[in-house]
Amino acid sequence: MILERLREDIQTIFKKDPAARSIPEVLLCYPGLHALWSHRVAHWLWVHHLFFAGRFVSHIGRLLTGVEIHPGATIGRRVFIDHGMGVVIGETAEVGNDVLIYMGVVLGGTALVNEKRHPTIEDHVVIGSGASVLGPITIGSGAKVGAGSVVVRSVPPGATVVGVPGRIAGPQCKLGGEGEERGVMPDPMLRVISRLLDRQNQFEERIRIMEQVIPGPLGLEKQAELVMEEQIRDALREVIDPEVGIDIVDLGLIRDVHVNADGRAEIDMVLTTKGCPLVDYLSQQVRRRVEGITGITAVEVTVLDEPWDWSRFVRQNGQLKKV
Known about the structure:
Elements: H1 2-16, H2 23-29, H3 31-47, H4 51-65, E1 68-69, E2 74-75, E3 80-81, E4 88-89, E5 94-95, E6 100-101, E7 106-108, E8 120-121, E9 126-127, E10 132-134, E11 138-139, E12 144-145, E13 150-151, E14 160-162, E15 167-170, H5 188-212, H6 216-236, H7 248-251, E16 254-259, E17 264-271, H8 279-291, E18 298-305
Parallel strand pairs: 1-4, 2-5, 3-6, 4-7, 5-8, 6-9, 7-10, 8-11, 9-12, 10-13, 12-14, 17-18
Antiparallel strand pairs: 14-15, 16-17
Helix pairs in contact: 3-4
């Protein structure tokens, strides 16, 4: 039984750490493994009411590995503490099976009374480096906690939590995902900004439609300007982004087009970063296409550095979805 558990612990490291190369390396150079083995001894002493001996073994394990696990904590099977330094697991903490814990993680308590005051971590949970999970809360099966997060509320199964305090930021993932990509953590603030920009774009589109029906001489002048802007957008549909294979208008790179009374066209082009290697190429192509339109005297292209969700600009024909 003991040999089977030891073999299972070693196989877990090979499965979850691509840096592991050999059994001697795992046996001698993985402090997270040593911490779990010393904890099992300390926990056995603790449940048999040998409290001082359990705490002493736990203390020795902390000195040797940098991982502090209270002997009263309950640790499941196939748990892997990667790197390990700075990990702290409190007395009433419960960790399920197949849990992955990175360095600096704290499973701490918030109460000063002798009761359940540490978190419960269910199966298949991933906790990123430096994360703190505090209080008698439950992290549901298959959940992911982003690096540096501070979680003080229970997390439903399969959710992704990031930030301080922790917020649910991602869609539910598959439970038990051994082959799941663990490095992708969504940014909730970027998502909010993207949605605000989306709303702004919708309002501007509605204003453009309203301007097209303005009556009187002012309306005729405005309509002529809008017709010119539409001609520019049609011309820019011939400029294809070489990395995506879709024109820059449908892709959403053209943020705004404005034509002054003297025929000078001002075009705002959105890229995720001004350091994009295609910015000069795309700017040059935009100028070339617009300068060929009758009535345009000059072209000014401004590159905006904004977080942008390209999927908002997918047209009804679904061109982007086919890429």
